[in-house]
Amino acid sequence: MQWEVVIGLETHAQLSTQSKIFSGSPIRFGAAPNTQASPVDLALPGVLPVLNKGAVERAIQFGLAIGATIAPRSVFARKNYFYPDLPKGYQISQFELPVVQGGRVAFVMEKDGKPALCSVQLTRAHLEEDAGKSLHEDYAGMSGIDLNRAGTPLLEIVTEPDMRSAAEAVAYAKALHSLVMWLGICDGNMQEGSFRCDANVSVRPLGQEKFGTRSEIKNLNSFRFMEDAINYEVRRQIELIEDGGTVVQETRLYDPDRKETRSMRSKEDSQDYRYFPDPDLPPLVISADWVEHVRASMPELPDAMRLRLIADYGLSEYDAMILTQSKAMAAYFEAVVAAAGAAQAKPAANWLMGDMASQLNRDGIDIAGAPVSPAQLALLLKRIADGTISNKIAKDVFATMWEEKAADADAADRIIDAKGLKQISDSGALEKIVDDVLAANAKSVEEFRAGKEQAINALIGQAMKASRGKANPAQLTELLRAKLKG
């Protein structure tokens, strides 16, 4: 039987406010346990929550960025469940009337061996508070409770079950991660729990409309773990069904050491949480003027920048999409073009998506930490454009700059001079190389003159080898053709 995978993601993005969502407590990561918990966070008798305006404005920014509806009126509810790290016995969240409704997140991924522009429909994004944390190590067989995170502002972003593979889920999650960081509403630090995903996974026979029973994999805090966990869960469910078993709706955890998911608890439905409007919090009213005020404070959005790059520099939609996948990449590109000139926009894009991306992946770093600065890359592009070096030699210069972590803006010129890498463009010198190559490769010459056009490639290769890669390729090819036809 052929199976179809159905995936939806719920992502908790910790909002970049200075204080918690309903109290003035700080949210600094790594503080000693229970040093950032106020009476409101501890749910002491008589305390009342007060909504953080900054958290609301960050939610509005997100909604505007994804083309969603910003609810003019939304309601906070009590979500009832009983864990030791939830002091009130309920979580303040939103249920029937979330602040952000609908919207889409676009991304690029490989489909059928080609890059494709895709998108995922969102159901909602709602504000809520985080719980505390249970600690099970170093407590002499007991568990400890750290309430520093209790009340930390979260934006929970929920997709429709639109994704059909682990790779697609990861591509969406990366795009979402980039977007919240672009907006500055979340620092995106997955190791510290600022951005974590829950994956709802089910399978169904290909062609069936009814969804299968889903399992929820909780707290995936790396993209690699997400892909591994989803792929494992898909295999587990298919094997279970094909062996005559039944998938149970449950919450599961991913064990990265064993590369498998394991059961955590049965999965509740919304009615199990007994949602009802929180009587301590009035409805949240967001006026059109407030929305426009937030809109005016936002940075240029990725979609708007993508269209501008296409219009201003003649880039393809694919190039512009890749360059705007992160704010740091887009800023780097624009800095290179500002230094090298608009004519170098396409070469700059090619370098960023090619050699730069390759080095970043190899070293596991973001472009913000790249050892080659925009000014250094811009000078390298100028030296290719003015014929000082070939594109092939430029790759060697780039690699040297990367390894040196050179600080000087004219590093490209220094390396070219020190290694004697300037192209040979002198016609006399090139003519001697060509004459020597033609004399030494009579067979290739004869084949070309007999009509075998590709024979010239061998001669070009020999000439480039004789010049140690420093011959100007365009001049060399032109001179070769003239000699062969003369």
Task: Give structural notes.
The protein is α+β, with helices and mostly antiparallel strands. The protein is built from 16 helices and 17 strands. The protein has helices spanning 39-42, 53-65, 166-183, 223-242, 288-297, 302-313, 317-323, 327-340, 345-363, 374-385, 391-404, 411-419, 427-440, 442-449, 455-466, 473-485; strands at residues 3-14, 69-70, 73-74, 77-80, 90-93, 100-101, 104-111, 114-129, 133-135, 144-146, 153-159, 195-205, 215-220, 250-255, 260-266, 276-277, 284-285. Strands 1, 2, 6, 7, 8, 11, 12, 13, 14 and 15 form a ten-stranded mixed β-sheet that branches. The chain has a three-stranded antiparallel β-sheet with strand order 5-4-16, with no helix packed on it. β7 (104-111) and β8 form a beta hairpin. α6 crosses α7. The model has no long low-confidence stretch (mean pLDDT 90).
